Amino acid sequence: MIIDVHGHYTTAPAALGAWRDLQIAALKDPGKKPKAADLKISDDEIRETIEANQLRLMKERGSDLTIFSPRASFMAHHIGDFETSSTWAALCNELCFRVSELFPDHFIPAAMLPQSPGVDPKTCIPELVKCVEQYGNVGINLNPDPSGGHWTSPPLTDRSWYPIYEKMVEYDIPAMVHVSTSCNACFHTTGAHYINADTTAVMQLIQGDLFKDFPTLKFLIPHGGGAAPYHWGRYRGLAQELKKPLLEEHLLNNIYFDTCVYHQPGINLLTEVIPVKNILFASEMIGAVRGIDPQTGHYYDDTKRYIEATQNLTAEEKHAVYEGNARRVFTRLDAALKAKGL
Questions:
Q1: Any idea where the Amidohydrolase-related domain is (predicted)?
Q2: I want to staple 114 with a disulfide (CB 3.0 to 4.6 A). Which of 85, 123, 136, 207 is the partner?
Q3: How many C-beta atoms surround the C-beta of residue 329 within 10 A?
Q4: How many Cβ atoms sit within 10 Å of the Cβ of residue 215?
Q5: Can you list the positions of beta strands (E) in 124-269?
Q6: Which pLDDT tens digit goes with each residue over 162-198?
Q7: Residue 23's closest CA among 70, 73, 91?
């Protein structure tokens, strides 16, 4: 089985975006505030968007199951207040759950949280609990910068995040550390802000001792880990100067990297530098980079091709990247598959 651990509902029906536009407009004119019940999306509309897009590409490229969460750039936690984010997260999470209900063999949901700048992270717990217990979510997306590129939140090692970590440990679910839209003109959303955040998360975790308090906590650092694998020697050296343990002990029992790296040399480097046990297959298809690479004639985000072509992985190691590691890290996913006899 080939499990893609990083998929977003980037092709959601247009009605979702239209409802969001009304919600944002109502921040200036509360009389225009839409109700959640005003959003009407039929099962047929969901089927059409999935069958023509994600599911079609999964079949063409040879992947079987996607961990599916709301569109990352649409989370936009910097907009409005907690109530704004709470309503928006609930709608988006419900849509991903409906996708998983309509296509149970191909999609399983992960949740966005109703984060809001300056608001205690523990306010996200009710949505997290609902998504795990009612929707069967196998993971969450955690935004380390709800401010949208201004980085006003404390680092991930700060105790203010601990209520979420406690729930993660209780449910044994990992968090993908994933920012949303940048409203800072200095940082392009997908080209800079995303990669900056991945790199920043790794360094924050090096500087702290979070995993001493939460030895079973699990983070997935997306987009191949940002700059971290490319500069692994720098981070090993910085950890040494900070009197931290070797990174194998300090980080690599708790953090994992996905394969959303869109060229062969990048995957070759990732699989050479990072231990195989810490790499999970992912594509983030129909995401940040949707075009065809003129050098190869294939889509940039067809990451399975890079895994197949690398000389750094044996057949057994490719199986770990494609399936084994995902089932080990996402234990609720593993349990759901085993319940189906898979």
A1: 3-330
A2: 85
A3: 22
A4: 10
A5: 140-142, 175-177, 219-221, 255-258
A6: 999 999 999 999 999 999 999 999 999 999 999 999 9
A7: 91
